[in-house]
UniProtKB/TrEMBL annotation:
Matching Pfam families: GGDEF, PAS_3
Xref: NCBIfam families: GGDEF
SUPFAM superfamilies reported in the protein's UniProt record: Nucleotide cyclase, PYP-like sensor domain (PAS domain)
PANTHER family: BIOFILM ARCHITECTURE MAINTENANCE PROTEIN MBAA (PTHR44757:SF2), DIGUANYLATE CYCLASE DGCP (PTHR44757)
Taxonomic path: Bacteria, Bacillati, Bacillota, Clostridia, Lachnospirales
Domain PAC residue range list: 83-135
The name this protein goes by in its record: Diguanylate cyclase
InterPro entries given in the database record: Biofilm_reg_signaling, GGDEF_dom, Nucleotide_cyclase, PAC, PAS, PAS-assoc_C, PAS-like_dom_sf, PAS_fold_3
Length: 307
């Protein structure tokens, strides 16, 4: 079969983007012609490719294959004006890159596809920028901890899993010094980071520590709901309040109050779960510094009346 690729002055057609690969795919022969193959290193040794579909699919990231196939099937079925899809392809045996695949098919009088042509454009830099921006929007810049949005997403997954048992600890963490007029922000940050990093070090891969506000944090303990296990975790956290810290000749102390919400059969809206854990933390503050309190219906009733 002859490949109808037009060349200008002996060169392959160019686009405004030097990172684009032009391709033409022929049916039913499943033959393809690619003018550049710098992004198709794995399995493609020439510009003319036999059995193109199968070779191309094997180069697509396993997590993206279903999406690519679904989009392609939809495009052929609906005969849409243009095909467009973003996905990852193998650059070499250890590395994938993101591409934007765009194309347009030609149908014969019987409604069968006879050719499809378009471009693959390397968009890895844009995707990495988007991922970085997404990370920054979901994580606290000071501690690197997830923010409320991510915590609620994770909590929602736990709630949906009827076999899941978990506990939410809502914590108020305050850094104090004897001379409040001389509190150094850098020292406060240093101590806070030390406490947070220590907490993270003792978590399992299923747990999640999150920053809600300047002084408030939440900890999701996955698989923990028995009181003895909860008490051990709470005791580990409160141990930071036992000893003063000396930083740059200034003595600092940590005050922690914890609200405990153990979730077993009674599952509610995730935002309500977080709010209830916070109510328990506020009750712990009423009891006094460095205390904890379990959420119960009496706490909810009392705070509802106050509000």
């Amino acid at each position: 079969m002859k490949c109808n690729v037009k060349f200008v002055k002996g060169k392959a057609p160019q686009s405004n983007d030097d990172f684009s690969t032009f391709w033409e795919w022929y049916f039913p022969s499943n033959l393809a012609y690619i003018t550049k193959n710098f992004i198709l290193n794995s399995g493609f040794n020439s510009n003319l490719i036999q059995d193109y579909f199968n070779k191309w699919i094997t180069n697509i990231h396993p997590d993206d294959r279903d999406t690519v196939l679904s989009n392609l099937i939809w495009y052929f079925r609906e005969k849409a004006p243009y095909y467009k899809c973003e996905y990852r392809v193998k650059k070499n045996e250890k590395e994938y890159i993101w591409i934007l695949s765009q194309g347009k098919a030609v149908w014969n009088s019987n409604g069968r596809v006879i050719k499809m042509s378009g471009t693959h454009t390397d968009i890895t830099s844009r995707k990495e920028m988007q991922q970085n921006l997404k990370y920054l929007s979901e994580h606290d810049p000071e501690t690197g901890l997830p923010l409320t949005t991510l915590f609620l997403k994770r909590l929602k997954k736990e709630v949906k899993n009827i076999y899941s048992y978990f506990t939410v600890l809502y914590m108020s963490i305050d850094v104090q010094t004897m001379d409040t007029s001389n509190m150094c922000g850098e020292n406060k940050h240093s101590l806070l980071m030390k406490v947070i990093m220590n907490m993270k070090h003792h978590l399992t891969s299923k747990d999640m520590l999150c920053r809600i506000s300047e002084n408030e944090y939440t900890l999701l303990l996955s698989g923990i709901h028995l009181e003895t296990a909860i008490e051990r975790k709470v005791a580990d956290i409160l141990k930071y309040t036992n000893t003063p810290f000396l930083i740059n000749n200034e003595i600092y102390s940590i005050t922690i109050n914890i609200g405990v919400l153990a979730c077993t059969e009674n599952r509610r809206n995730v935002k309500r779960l977080l709010d209830n854990a916070r109510l328990a933390m506020q009750q712990a503050k009423v009891i006094g510094p460095n205390n904890y309190c379990y959420y119960n219906s009496i706490i909810y009733t009392n705070y509802t009346i106050i509000l």
